[in-house]
Amino acid sequence: MTARGTPSRFLQSVLRNGVGRYVCQLKRISIIFSKNAQSSLGVRGFIEEGVVDYAKNNPGTVVYVSPQACRIPKIVAEYLNGNVREEIVTSKTSQQISELVTKLTNQSGLDIIRIRKPFHTDNPSIQGQWHPFTNRPPSIGPIRPQTQEAK
What is the pTM of this model? Predict the structure, then answer.
């Protein structure tokens, strides 16, 4: 945590993802809904229309569909780093659930926090950072404001 009270970190990829090939970080997604409840209507529509297409498009993600006697339908996403995220989908449409599942698929599983800098290196330069006066010869001397000469 920083002095601001919010956690922050440097920008980095998850498990060096993308250095070799891209690996989707979503390991498992569970869709828990009720067969009869009105709040599960959108989830049932998504299961009829879009869950097979989603499974075909994302072969690295296991999709579980479990009808249970529950009043609150939810989607549970489990990531490779061990994080679990639950999203309540009460009274959402099939299209909204499809967008939510796509968003969960594209995320890394890390908490969304403030990024300190948009760049970071594990091997900083020992020469220092470059600036316009890096290679300026010292014989010229420091830069001073121009003075106007009186005639």
Answer: 0.67
